[in-house]
Structures are given as C-alpha cells and as structure tokens.
Amino acid sequence: MNPGACPLSDEPPAAVFEAVARRFSVLGEPTRLRILHAVCQAERCVNDIMHVTGLEQANVSRHLARLYQAGLLMRRRVGNRVFYRASRSPDIDLCRLVVQQVMVGQAPALPGRVTPVSTAVFPVESKEETSV
C-alpha cells in the first residue's frame, strides 16, 4: 500500500465523519491534552492533577469528565478520592504520534529537549484496566 494512501475503499457515511470529528474535538483542547499528559505519567487524583497542571478544581473536573466519557481515561475510587489514568485507547496512540511529529518538527527550536514520546509524553501503562 502507498504510505500516503487512505485505507478506505468506499466513501464512509456522514455519521462516520461526525463521530471522527467528535473524537478529535476531545483532543483538540490544549487543557485536556495537559491533563492527559499528567495522567499518562502516573495515576493521579484531581488534587494531584491540579498541582501538576496549575489548573483550578472545577476546570480539572470538567475536563476529566469529558476525557472519561470519551474513553480516554480509566478511573478508580479509593475512599472519597477518584484516581485517573490513561486508557489503552487508540486515540492515546494517535495523540502520541501527533505529539512526536510536532516535537520533531520543532527540534531545531528545542535543541537537546526532544525526548522519545513513548517514555516522556504519554508513557504506556502496563497495568490491567478497570473503571469505576
């Protein structure tokens, strides 16, 4: 297959394009990407995410809800705290790829700061996933 070729042989229905646009809209918000980055580094509760990102609680909670509803996060409750971590969604892999491409494209502007995406930006979790 030609690397630039689209693997779709038929025109997808309009509903497919709408679903794809909804998925991209979740990842199209920089604040959600910052939160996703934080929970890809380690499982975190809302307070931890607030500390890492510098965001307010209401803002963090709103974005966590959207990421969870989109299937990008898993969560578990421990007492009165809820811990979040990245799911094994293909969207996470897509995000890793895009971040890697952007970082490579910016490499001259960021000498010595480009780190492999798989370990620095969105590390891969090996734990078994469960949801609340």
UniProtKB/TrEMBL annotation:
Keywords: DNA-binding, Transcription, Transcription regulation. Pfam families: HTH_5. Gene3D superfamilies: Winged helix-like DNA-binding domain superfamily/Winged helix DNA-binding domain. It comes from the Bacteria. The keyword Transcription regulation applies. Residues 12-106 form the HTH arsR-type domain. GO terms for molecular function: DNA binding; DNA-binding transcription factor activity. The keyword DNA-binding applies. Signal peptide: none annotated. PANTHER family: ARSENICAL RESISTANCE OPERON REPRESSOR ARSR-RELATED (PTHR43132), ARSR FAMILY TRANSCRIPTIONAL REGULATORY PROTEIN (PTHR43132:SF9). This is Arsenic resistance transcriptional regulator ArsR1.
